[in-house]
């Protein structure tokens, strides 16, 4: 009888032990947190939320478990804002804890658009990323980097870790809330919170200490210095990133808005690939032109390289996902595809026949500051290279359309204003309606409402602004206007201050909107130097 009771007690103890051996929402082994170090040059700290740590074991689960514990898979996300210049994020640092010795096999990092106090649509994901660090702290390298245009976003860091052999990883909490508090989701509801989709962490887990998480974003600011109009990237395959199979080369370079996915070649060949990340920081969709030269460098790839465009990101395991267009053939030529407003995009170059360490050149026109289908002219009313005039055009609020409009008149004829000009010509033998994209908010010193643009042919006369007048932008805002030019006609775009003489910065992009002849205008047209 005694033996039977002991057996029952032993069995009960075993059952209790089994019941305890499952994931929890918080935990760890306590101790002082060791925060991940700041990134090495050339990366810089873009956003730092490593301050105000909560106490020991004040943390929360964010883990991708093995199959036997899938119901406990959960994510935590926290929000941040990207300024006007845009960011390229190369690594994410997190402060965390292990419940046992760990370590995590890798980390998954997700970026979401803002959904209003919780994460919205997925923008980019980097799965199975390598990291450095110990005791639960991690500095996670993103391959490829993630480019984000200005806006509000959420980042979610999730450990890929087997509970049965390595225990749990917990993301350490922060006592101070910045913007929105952290968010939580547990699709399998293993923790019984009911939060199977995103909700605020403190709603799902009210016993948590601290509304935010400890993390840091590292990378580079997308600045105007990074994007001359023709910015060749001389590169080559390093062998560091590989994929199985590639897309089929259909011989047709894509054009805007893009083309259907051409399908996979088929096969199990392992090929090298390189990814180059940019962002369309414009508020409009952009017809992006990619320049590809597989015959460049010390060991040219020739037919053993192919270029493809993706947005918002590239997944080598699913090459049809996010596909926009490709170069069609492994020759020196260009292709185009439309990238959504504010979206990151990736140009991928991949071997075609074998994993060779060969060289190539690739470029994106005017990326990433002003991703536009055209050649960009940037001016700044910079002293001696600009002129002055008395009066300026009256801003009637109406951007010109094809066919032009009547001269709107002169405003403040007794006041002095700066002006600058950029000149080009219509190389077609037919009349062409040109679109002029005007941005008075260019870095580093935006003009804002203190700039206005107009088109004149054959030239601009500051003493008589009605002479040769064709069109103007109407208002001092970032927008397009149109001017119809006679075949072969020269023309000048004039930009003037509107309220005061200021050396501020703006940009112009001109492109034919309706024309004949099918000319490659960007190779024929030449902007002059800034002249008074």
Largest sheet: 7 strands, mixed
Helix content: under 10%
Shape: globular
Rg, Å, rounded: 29 Å
**Secondary-structure class:** mainly beta
Overall number of strands: 34
Number of helices: 4
Beta-strand residue fraction = 35-45%
Q: What's the number of domains?
A: 3
What is the typical, i.e. mean, pLDDT?
A: 81
Distance between the termini: 108 Å
Low-confidence stretches: 1-20, 30-34, 36-42, 223-231, 366-377, 381-385, 514-532
Describe it for me?
The protein is mainly β and 532 residues long. It has 3 domains: 23-221, no CATH class; 226-364, Jelly Rolls, CATH 2.60.120; 375-524, Jelly Rolls, CATH 2.60.120. Helices cover 6% and strands 40% of the residues. The chain contains 4 helices and 34 strands. The protein has helices at 2-20, 163-166, 201-204, 521-524; strands at 44-49, 59-61, 63-64, 75-82, 87-94, 96-98, 106-114, 119-129, 131-132, 138-148, 151-160, 169-174, 183-185, 199-200, 212-213, 215-221, 233-236, 242-244, 270-279, 286-293, 306-310, 323-326, 333-339, 344-350, 359-364, 375-379, 387-393, 410-425, 432-439, 452-456, 469-472, 479-485, 490-496, 506-514. Strands 3, 4, 7, 8, 11, 13 and 14 form a 7-stranded mixed sheet that branches. It has a 5-stranded antiparallel sheet with strand order 1-16-5-10-9, with no helix packed on it. A 5-stranded antiparallel sheet has the order 18-19-24-21-22, with no helix packed on it. The termini are far apart. The relative contact order is 0.11. Residues 1-20, 30-34, 36-42, 223-231, 366-377, 381-385 and 514-532 have low confidence and may be disordered.
